[in-house]
Amino acid sequence: MTTNYKSVLALIAAAAVFANSSRAGEGAQPRDESGVTLQFQARPQSTYDERLPNPSGLFPPRKFQNLVTDNAALEAWLPIGPPQAEIAIDSAPLNEVAWNTSRIFKNQFDVILPPADPGLPTVVVQMRLKDVRAIEVFNAMNLYFQAQKIEARWTLTLNGTRPTAILAVLPPAKLPVPATPPAETEKIAPTVFSIVEILSPSSAAGDKQPTDSLADAIAAVLDDIPKPGRAKVNAPGGPILKMHAQAGILVFSGTWEETELVRSALAALKDAAQVRKNTAREMEQRAKDEAARKAEEDARIKALQAPPPKGGGGAALQNKALDDARNAALTD
Amino acid sequence: MTDDELLALFPDTPVGLIQTADSRKRLIFPQPGDEEKFITKL
User: Fold this and answer.
1) What's the CATH code, domain A71-169?
2) Domain spans, chain A
3) pLDDT for res A171
4) What is the pLDDT of residue B41?
5) What is the mean pLDDT of each run of 10 residues along chain A (332 residues)?
6) Cβ-count burial of A112 within 10 angstroms (0-12 exposed, 13-18 middle, 19+ buried)?
7) Residue A134: how many CB atoms within 10 A of its CB?
8) Which of A191, A246, A261 to mutate to test binding with chain B, by most B CBs within 10 Å of its CB?
9) Is there a contact between B42 and B32 (Cβ–Cβ < 8 Å)?
């Protein structure tokens, strides 16, 4: 009987140890008698009161973790109340909001603001809060700063044992610089344009006059830019324009604005050259058609004027003469 | 602009200048993509 009683006590004790180990969560790794480590997975806790010490010693992600400096500050700030039924802030400067909030909560905490920050009075807060404690007022202000992209943040901490709210003005965030086109006045690397479609065959073959006139036209466009103190094309300090007529290449070195202007001018010249080529082709075709028609007419007249051959077959010969004349005209 | 000056525009890039039958010259970039990279077409 005594043995049974002891066994029951031992079982109760073992169960109690097991239950404590389970509550301790994953932080505790009890060992059994064989030396095997027993691991217990922590169960997520559905409710958690930050004001009470956590029995497991483990803390879930702390509420207001971006607002308070540590657990001690959290525990000091959470009880500051009582919760206010409504706090309405209508376009008040930030420093006034801070002092008034301190007064509303009976000066249970101190406020530290950046000294003589010229930008601070211009930060205006506008919000309406219901049933809030002091910590929630400051959290709401931080949310407001984030939403409005205001570079300021409240931090709640302890000054000794005294809860203290500190406003920090953040340095401007270093944002990645977006790729921007170079400034209009900034010199850029030489641009090599293909102008084969602009140059006529004669200029490509080495005739200097058309290429010179093209370069002059581009230079004239650039020199027309009304900008005081701007150097002329190919003058010292000015943009540089060079051409290689045989290769159909134009090289321009200038600012981004000038390069874009040259690009536009060349595109317009290309369009004009295309129109000119089309017109020339049309005229050439028209001349060919006219010549063929004239040759055919001449051949017909000649055939009609010629005496008919002896032995018949005159019509067939006339038709052959006409065909020959037409073919000759088309070949031309 | 001379041939040498033209070729000097593309340092560290394989490039050649060939003469065609119609007396024209043409820049040749053996590496694919170089022509599009260096020559601005209108």
Assistant:
1) 3.55.50.30
2) 71-169, 183-307+314-332
3) 63
4) 87
5) 50 46 43 46 44 47 76 88 85 82 90 70 77 89 83 88 86 54 69 86 56 82 75 84 89 87 88 87 93 91 78 65 69 62
6) middle
7) 26
8) A246
9) no
Nearest chain A CA: its distance from B29 CA (Å): 13
pLDDT at site A146: 83
CB contact under 8 A, B42 and A263: yes
Contact A201/B at CB under 8 A: yes
Q: Note whether B6 contacts A247, CB cutoff 8 Å.
A: yes
Asked if A24 and A55 touch (Cβ cutoff 8 Å), the reply is no
CA distance A245 to chain B (A): 8
What are the sequence ranges of the domains in chain B? 3-38
> Could you tell me if A78 and A135 are in contact, meaning their C-beta atoms sit under 8 angstroms apart?
yes
pLDDT at A3: 46
CA distance A251 to B10: 12
Residues 6+ away with beta carbon under 8 Å from A22: A40
- Nearest residue in A to B2, CA atom: A244
A-chain residues within 8 Å CB-CB of B19?
246
Q: Smallest Cα–Cα separation from A261: which of A227, A224, A214, A228?
A: A224
| d(CA B22, nearest CA chain A) in Å | 7
**In terms of CA atoms, which chain B residue is nearest residue A265?**
B42
Q: How far is A165 from chain B (nearest CA, A)?
A: 58
Contact between A321 and A302 under an 8 Å Cβ cutoff? The reply is yes
Burial A42-81 (b: 16+ CB within 10 A, else e): eeeeeeeebeeeeebeeeeeeebeebbeeeebbbbbbebe
Q: Is the pLDDT of residue B33 over 50?
A: yes
Q: Which two tokens stand for residue A221?
A: 């466009």
pLDDT of the residue at A46: 40
Say if CB A247 and CB B26 are below 8 A apart: yes
pTM: 0.42
**A231/A137 Cα distance (integer angstroms):** 63
